[in-house]
C-alpha cells in the first residue's frame, strides 16, 4: 500500500467546502460533515495500488500528473519520491482539487 500525503491546500479546500455547504446550501452541519467524511474516505483510498490515468489537460500530462475523480471533483496526484517518512519510496501527493 502506498502512502498518501494530503497537501495543506486540499485540507483548506475541505474546510472551505464545509463552510460553503452550510452557509450557501443551508445544509445542516452534520450533513455537510458526512459528505466531507465520504470525500476523505475517497482521498485515503488513493493509497490503494490502483493506477489512475494521466490527466487530460496537456500541461498536467506533460508533468506526469494523474487524475482521480469523485463525484464532481477532480483530484490531481503527483508521484513523488518523498524522504519525509524516513525511507525513499514512491508516494503520492494530492496537489489540488
**Considering DSSP H and I runs of 4 or more, what fraction of the residues is helical?**
25-40%
**Percent in strands:** 25-35%
What structural class is derived from the secondary structure elements? alpha+beta
Number of helical regions: 3
Order of helices and strands: EHHHEEE
Task: For the record, give the distance between the C-alpha atoms at the N and C termini, rounded to a whole number.
Answer: 22 Å
Q: Describe the sheet with the most strands.
A: 4 strands, mixed
Low-confidence region ranges: 81-97
Shape: elongated
User: How large, in whole angstroms, is the Cα Rg?
Assistant: 15 Å
With strands numbered from the N-terminus, the spatial order across the biggest sheet is: 1-4-3-2
Number of domains: 1
The count of strands amounts to 4
Question: Can you give the mean pLDDT?
Answer: 76
Amino acid at each position: 500500500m502506498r502512502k498518501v500525503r494530503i497537501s495543506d491546500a486540499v485540507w483548506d479546500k475541505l474546510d472551505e467546502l464545509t463552510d460553503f455547504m452550510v452557509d450557501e446550501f443551508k445544509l445542516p452541519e452534520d450533513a455537510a460533515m458526512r459528505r466531507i467524511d465520504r470525500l476523505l474516505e475517497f482521498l485515503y483510498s488513493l493509497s490503494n495500488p490502483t493506477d489512475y490515468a494521466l490527466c487530460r489537460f496537456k500541461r498536467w500530462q506533460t508533468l506526469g500528473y494523474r487524475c482521480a475523480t469523485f463525484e464532481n471533483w477532480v483530484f490531481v496526484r503527483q508521484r513523488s519520491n518523498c524522504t519525509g517518512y524516513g525511507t525513499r519510496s514512491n508516494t503520492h501527493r494530492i496537489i489540488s482539487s
